[in-house]
Structure formats: structure tokens, C-alpha cells
């Protein structure tokens, strides 16, 4: 699999070359073991079959990747298309494999080998070695280097109060506005999943969505009846009634999906000043969350293990879903260090209900500031932000400020502290 090829400081041999060597071994065994029975040929034959299958799959993957690059260059968006690998992944014990890999990552590296190993990692995954807060020799394990902190000032936070900033370094996969009841988040063109499944059935987002829909219906009714009740406009009291309905701030619900490459900075920061009311931990699978997996695995973010933080900020609802992935069995919360993920006792998505904790005091929760560190991953993964923001905002003279707008688009790279969206600009 790709992760083993890029994580090692050397290159794996080409599958076609391995197949050629296997055939030579098979022929040699056949010549030396003539008359000794068919059993001697079983192992070389099976090896050749396996290598042949891997070679075919590797060739197909390279072809698919080339086709994808060509389609992107032509402006054609990739669509959802399940493949054999997606089905095969469901048969693997990915949770156990992730725990084993995590143990290996925590093995202490001899001091004299640390710079060479970490530099090899940085070259493979394009990490910036000018940013770590400590010298390379002071990171005792690859895991410690992976979750490294950065030098102060490496990630300046946008101070604009009318913006929401990125909580992570990553690539923008999807973004947009959620509309109506039963709202869906687009995983990839051709497949979407319910936001309620991502955040949980008890999420307060559902109440927020119903409130927004009710407000839209009320505004529509007022517009439809305005001509019939035009005499109200000359009434002394009518301006107050009309202002109260039409000048109330309108809000929408938006989302943004950010993918963290293995070489990215892997700590999660607060996108805004907000109060965290609840934490939900969903036990589930640990499928990869790279772009190929997004195109081929149904309900990827809903099936994977994840931790959701939910609360309120000055503009309304906000939630952050930290989604685990293969080799990312551990999602750490700085605000709740006792939380443990990818435990050996929890297996599949629906085997047990999610665990929920309400932060005290109830109703006000835990206050965090924009840019404050709140969580971290032990490997590359994905963060989904769902938030409420003003579509338009009334000013004192009866006019409206421009609607909320994203500062990024799908495919952009973004870093912690950079604005995702702004509003209220003149």
C-alpha cells in the first residue's frame, strides 16, 4: 500500500521486477526438483500469483491516477466510483493494524539517527523543518516528531472578528452551504452523506436548521401579504413592525472539509472564539481519508472513528469533527486529555452508541479563544467544520452588508489561522 512505500527511507522494488525474479525461482525449483512431486512448486507458484495480482492492481492504480490528473487539467471534476480496493479494505483489521503501527511509531530512536530519519520523513512528505519548536535530536520518537509543536509566530491568527479561520494545515476538499431539513454534505461529486449522521442525532444543529427554515417561511409570508396590507406602510407603528421582520440578521449554515496530508502540522486549533458545550466520540472504522478513499468509500467520514466538539459562538452554532483514519487510531483532546480513542474493546460503527460528554457548567461550557490549541492527530486525517454565519446583516440605516463568502475554494492549501470565510465587509 502507498503508505508503506512513502514512509520508509528506501524505495520498494518494482512489482514487475519481483514477478520476474519469482518466475526465475519457480523455473529453478522445477529443474532441481523434477520427480519430487508437485508440492515443491506450490510456494513459488502462489508467490508469482500474488505478485502478478499486485502488479496488475499497481498498474491500474497508476493508470487511474494519470486519468484523474488529465481530467483535472481539463476542468472535469472526479466522481464517486467504488472499486475493488474499497471492498478489500473492509476485510482488513484496520483498527488493530493502526494500534500496532502506533506502537512502532512510539519506539525511541537513537539520538544519532534522529536527524537522518526525520529529514527522510520530511523529504517524503514535504514537511518544513524550519518550523519545529525543538531541534530534531530532542524528538525521542517518530510519533513525537509527527505531533511536533511549532515555533511561536509560525501560524499568525487573522485578527478580523468577522472571519472564521482554519483550525488545521491542510487541503480544502469540499465547502458550501447546507440548506433545508435533512441537509447533506457532499463527500464527492455523485455522493453525499447526512450532516446529522456526522455530528450525531442529538446535535443542536437540527434545532438551528428548523429555526432558519421557520424564519425563511415567515419572511416569505410577510412578502406575500405585503401588497394586501399596504395600508400598514402609512401607519405610525408600521415601520417598527416592518423593520423587526426585514432587518433581522439572516444566517446560513456552512461547512468546510479539510484534509491533512501526513507531512502537515497535525495539531487542531480553534477557528473562532466559542463556548464548547458537548463532546461526542463515535467509535467506527479506520479507513484511509485520502482523495482516492473519498472517491471510492461510501459514508467515509460517517463510518470512521471521530470526535465531535459542538458549541456556540457569537454568530450561532459551530462544530468541529476530527475524523480518524488508518494509522490514526489516536485523536487527542487537550481540553479532555483522559479521552481514549481506537480502544481494543470497540469494533464497528453501530456496535455501540456514541459516547457524549457535556462540559460544565451546563449551558456555558468551556470557553476557547480563536487560535487556541484544542486537539491533535497522530497521523494524517480530516477535519470537518460546520458553522452558522450571517448571510446578510442589517445596519442602522436599514441597509445590509454583503453576504458571507468563503475566502478559499476546493483544492486550495490553507494553514492554521488563515481565513476560511469573511462577512460584514463594507
TrEMBL record:
Enzyme class at the top of the EC tree: lyase
Post-translational modification as stated in the protein's UniProt record: Is synthesized initially as an inactive proenzyme. Formation of the active enzyme involves a self-maturation process in which the active site pyruvoyl group is generated from an internal serine residue via an autocatalytic post-translational modification. Two non-identical subunits are generated from the proenzyme in this reaction, and the pyruvate is formed at the N-terminus of the alpha chain, which is derived from the carboxyl end of the proenzyme.
Mitochondrial intermembrane side: 64-426
Source domain of life: Eukaryota
Cofactor remark: Binds 1 pyruvoyl group covalently per subunit.
Keywords: Decarboxylase, Lipid biosynthesis, Lipid metabolism, Lyase, Membrane, Mitochondrion, Mitochondrion inner membrane, Phospholipid biosynthesis, Phospholipid metabolism, Pyruvate, Transmembrane, Transmembrane helix, Zymogen
Essential cofactor(s): pyruvate
Catalytic reactions of this protein: a 1,2-diacyl-sn-glycero-3-phospho-L-serine + H(+) = a 1,2-diacyl-sn-glycero-3-phosphoethanolamine + CO2
Segments in the Mitochondrial matrix topological domain: 1-44
Site (Cleavage (non-hydrolytic)): 380-381
GO MF annotation terms: phosphatidylserine decarboxylase activity
Entry EC number(s): 4.1.1.65
Pathway(s) the chain acts in: Lipid metabolism; Phospholipid metabolism; phosphatidylethanolamine biosynthesis; phosphatidylethanolamine from CDP-diacylglycerol: step 2/2
Positions annotated as active site in the UniProt record: 169 (charge relay system), 269 (charge relay system), 381 (charge relay system), 381 (schiff-base intermediate with substrate)
Listed Pfam families: PS_Dcarbxylase
GO cellular component, one term: mitochondrial inner membrane
UniProt key word Transmembrane helix: yes
Family per record: Belongs to the phosphatidylserine decarboxylase family. PSD-B subfamily. Eukaryotic type I sub-subfamily.
Protein known as: Phosphatidylserine decarboxylase proenzyme 1, mitochondrial
Species this chain originates from: Hordeum vulgare subsp. vulgare (Domesticated barley)
Amino acid at each position: 500500500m502507498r503508505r508503506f512505500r512513502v514512509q520508509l527511507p528506501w524505495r520498494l522494488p518494482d512489482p514487475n521486477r519481483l514477478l520476474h525474479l519469482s518466475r526465475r525461482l519457480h523455473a529453478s525449483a522445477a529443474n532441481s526438483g523434477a520427480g519430487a512431486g508437485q508440492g515443491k512448486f506450490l510456494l513459488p507458484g502462489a508467490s508469482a500469483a500474488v505478485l502478478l495480482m499486485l502488479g496488475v492492481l499497481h498498474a491500474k492504480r497508476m493508470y487511474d491516477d494519470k486519468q484523474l490528473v488529465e481530467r483535472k487539467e481539463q476542468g472535469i471534476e472526479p466522481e464517486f466510483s467504488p472499486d475493488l480496493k474499497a471492498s478489500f479494505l473492509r476485510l482488513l483489521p484496520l483498527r488493530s493494524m493502526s494500534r500496532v503501527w502506533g506502537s512502532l511509531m512510539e519506539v525511541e530512536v537513537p539520538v544519532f539517527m534522529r536527524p537522518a530519519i526525520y529529514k527522510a520523513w520530511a523529504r517524503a512528505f514535504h514537511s518544513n523543518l524550519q518550523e519545529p519548536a525543538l531541534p530534531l535530536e530532542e524528538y525521542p520518537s517518530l510519533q513525537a516528531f509527527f505531533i511536533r509543536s511549532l515555533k511561536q509566530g509560525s501560524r499568525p491568527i487573522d485578527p478580523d472578528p468577522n472571519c472564521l479561520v482554519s483550525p488545521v494545515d491542510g487541503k480544502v476538499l469540499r465547502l458550501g452551504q447546507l440548506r433545508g431539513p435533512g441537509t447533506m454534505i457532499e463527500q464527492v461529486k455523485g455522493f453525499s452523506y447526512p450532516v446529522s449522521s456526522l455530528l450525531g442525532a442529538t446535535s443542536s444543529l437540527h434545532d438551528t436548521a428548523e429555526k432558519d427554515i421557520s424564519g425563511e417561511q415567515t419572511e416569505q409570508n410577510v412578502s406575500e401579504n405585503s401588497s394586501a396590507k399596504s395600508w400598514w406602510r402609512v401607519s405610525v407603528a408600521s415601520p417598527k413592525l416592518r423593520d423587526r421582520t426585514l432587518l433581522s440578521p439572516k444566517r446560513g449554515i456552512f461547512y468546510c472539509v479539510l484534509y491533512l496530508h501526513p507531512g502537515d502540522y497535525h495539531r487542531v486549533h480553534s477557528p473562532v472564539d466559542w463556548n464548547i458545550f458537548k463532546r461526542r466520540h463515535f467509535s467506527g472504522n479506520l479507513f484511509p481519508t485520502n482523495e482516492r478513499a473519498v472517491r471510492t468509500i461510501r459514508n467515509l467520514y460517517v463510518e470512521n472513528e471521530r470526535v465531535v466538539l459542538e458549541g456556540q459562538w457569537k454568530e450561532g452554532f459551530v462544530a468541529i469533527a476530527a475524523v480518524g483514519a488508518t494509522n490514526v487510531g489516536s485523536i487527542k483532546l487537550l481540553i479532555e486529555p483522559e479521552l481514549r480513542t481506537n480502544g481494543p474493546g470497540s469494533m464497528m460503527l453501530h456496535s455501540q452508541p456514541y459516547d457524549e460528554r457535556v462540559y460544565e457548567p451546563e449551558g456555558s461550557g468551556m470557553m476557547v479563544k480563536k487560535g487556541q490549541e484544542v486537539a491533535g492527530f497522530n497521523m494524517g486525517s480530516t477535519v470537518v467544520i460546520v458553522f452558522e454565519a450571517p448571510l446578510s446583516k442589517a445596519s442602522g440605516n436599514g441597509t445590509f452588508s454583503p453576504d458571507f463568502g468563503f475566502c478559499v475554494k476546493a483544492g486550495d492549501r490553507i494553514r492554521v489561522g488563515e481565513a476560511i470565510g469573511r462577512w460584514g465587509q463594507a
